[in-house]
Amino acid sequence: MLPLFSSCHMQQGTEMPTKWYSCVPCVLSDIGMPYTHVCVCERCVDRCVGDGTGLCYVRNDYTGEGHFVGTVTINATSFATSEVTTLKQVDLDFDNGQRILWFRTPDIVHLSGSAHILEAVVQPAPNCTGISTGTSVIPLAIPADMQLQKSHITASAVHLSHTAAADEPCFAVDIAVDAVSVYATVTTLADGFFAENAGLVHPPGKRVPFIGATTLGSNYNCSSDAFKVFSSSLRVEDVSTYL
User: Fold this and answer.
1) Burial readout 82-108 (b: 16 or more C-beta within 10 A, e: otherwise)
2) CA-CA distance, 39 to 60, in Å (whole number)?
3) 23 within 8 A of 44, measured Cβ to Cβ
4) Which residues are CB-contacts of 182 (< 8 A; sequence separation ≥ 6)?
5) Is the full-model pTM beyond 0.85?
6) What is the pLDDT of residues 165-181, one digit of tens each?
7) How many CB atoms lie within 10 A of CB 46?
């Protein structure tokens, strides 16, 4: 996962950008997958040099042999209505050696960062086994400028199984919200990590698996005592928590 950036890039009449410009407010966001495919989008306003036409790219940082086929989808979520609109979907076909694909999403420049937020979703084709979907939040404004409603976010622990293989979760969290939740973040003192975190949650909510830590290659500890640690220390918050 790469960090957020505060600059943008504009094409200069060629297939690849040849010059970089400082731009405020433009926010870039990257998403990572096992093959490290990332998607970046920009939105530029009048003060930025260039035409501000929603330039995006997907980059393949995987250096070994392999062939990735799938799609990247750019979605916009309305804070006021929770409605999700697909702005662009592009087919991906990265063969050995191909590193980047550029495309434009013109509708981005018509959105208000205070009223909308973007998500980039990289979805592998069915024949790309072992690769999961990668999703990234792409804000168009800083959190303080987002016109969010109180999400009243809550989290409930779920004990899925008392015995689970090394690639199966035995715990999960049910996240419930009344409005769009931005950067919904769940934490616990249990050893392991959540399958996804610090992203968007749309009403009414969703279930997120918890991937427990293994000990010397053994199966996860799915005992009642482990669940007690997981559930008793469960905590959730988002941007609207601090409004």
Assistant:
1) beeeebbebebebeeeeeebbbbbeeb
2) 9
3) yes
4) 117, 137, 139, 143, 146, 148, 200, 238, 239, 240
5) no
6) 666 788 999 999 999 99
7) 5
Count CB-CB contacts under 10 A for residue 122: 24
pLDDT digits (tens, 9 = 90+) for 112-129: 889 999 998 888 888 766
Give the list of residues 6+ apart from residue 168 with CB closer than 8 angstroms, or none: 161, 220
CA distance 99 to 37: 9
Q: Which two tokens stand for residue 205?
A: 């909510």
Q: Which two tokens stand for residue 135?
A: 């999703």
Query: Taking the chain, what is the end-to-end CA distance rounded to the nearest angstrom?
Result: 28
Closest CA to 27 of 51, 2, 5, 1: 5
Task: Specify the pairing of strand 134-138 against strand 192-194.
Answer: unpaired
How confident is the model over 67-84, as pLDDT tens digits?
778 888 999 999 999 999
